[in-house]
Amino acid sequence: MSLPVRQRKTMPESGPLVDPFNRVHTYLRVSVTDRCNYRCVYCLPAEGVAFMRRDRLLTYEEIARLVRIFASMGIERVRLTGGEPTVRKDLVALVEQLGQIGLKDLSMTTNGHLFAPHAEALAKAGLTRVNVSLDTLDAEKFERITRGGSLERVLAGIDAARAHGITPIKINCVVVRDENEDELERMVEAFGAHAKDTQVRFIEKMPFGAESQRFVPSQSLRERLAERFTLEPVDRLAGVGPATTFRIAETGLVVGFISPMSEHFCHHCNRLRLQADGELRTCLSRDDTPSLRDLMRRGDSDEALEQAIRRMVWGKVAGHEAHLDGDAFTAFEGVMTTIGG
Ligand code: SAM
């Protein structure tokens, strides 16, 4: 798979946030905590996870300050993630602060377990859209994959998002061999009834941590669905996301395939990840930038932070190195809950 080639020699000190490969960054994921109330088998070990010390986490004020600086450099869309964002206390207060920045889009990725009671307040605070992780519609299997999660609560979370207009809702399903491949048709059928405001995306499992096998390529999922449904390709809108999308002709449901392993989307990567401890991760597979938290806490000005961010983005690599090499994987460093999925 080819990676982008270098196109620029000097770092611009103003204007859009650009890297040497001429990728303009308009999208920021903000991890608000690395803690999670689930222990999904492909994401975290069952026990013994070391979480960040609380004083190392960015405060809400620090997050809002950084997002304002990012917005002044052209970041238009922000997605809150984690860990599980809803486990951090008083998340609505953060959404309120970010809601006032004037972003085009303020969304969240959540496992949905704690979402329903907060849906109304989050909608009022300015949350526009939500992605909910849901790998199966079988309650027992759900409990097994998430190690103790409740399908009922997650479905209630999805209903609450819909009721309060936090739409479109994207259902993210990570496909794991011998675990939930047989759920595809069921998911497509179940969400077909909500095709107006819901999409389903099947995600290739990435090789993090102990669970580095049991990967299923998107292509085989597409073929499997095509045996049962009519898949009409939907044009991929530039910069809108990494999914290759199809419309299920029978119901109108839009289904996406996200293929970080089999179909690199590094060429179009316009995203940055701010970890809960203030480290900026410019590529999913790399973690080599200094902490913006430390720069803020030592008293750096907004201008100094802007230039520091520009230098970090200028250091972004062409693409991630986790790849399929025959049947072998090169694993990513770190875990998703720290990086911010
Ligand atoms: N707790 C939130 C949630 O469940 O959506 C947000 C964080 S979670 C790390 C973000 C997304 O990353 C989820 O959709 C999860 O399924 C996905 N994820 C975690 N580990 C993954 C892996 N090894 N490969 C692909 N996706 C993964």
What does this structure look like?
The chain is α/β, with parallel strands linked by helices and 341 residues long. It has a domain at 27-170 and 265-339: Alpha-Beta Barrel (TIM Barrel). Helix content is 27%, strand content 17%. The model has no long low-confidence stretch (mean pLDDT 91). S-adenosylmethionine is lined by residues 36, 42-43, 81-82, 84, 109-111, 133, 172, 174, 203, 205-206, 208, 336-337, 341.
* Radius of gyration (Å): 19 Å
Total DSSP helices: 10
Major sheet: arrangement of strands: 7-8-9-6-5-4-3-2-1-10-11
CATH topology of the domain at 27-170 and 265-339: TIM Barrel
Largest sheet: 11 strands, mixed
Low-confidence stretches: none
Q: So what's the overall shape?
A: globular
Helix-strand pattern: EHEHEHEHHEHEHEEEEEHHEEH
Q: What would you give as the CATH superfamily of the domain at 27-170 and 265-339?
A: Aldolase class I
Question: Which small-molecule species are bound to the chains here?
Answer: S-adenosylmethionine
- The proportion of residues in beta strands is 15-25%
Report the average pLDDT across residues. 91
Structural class: alpha/beta
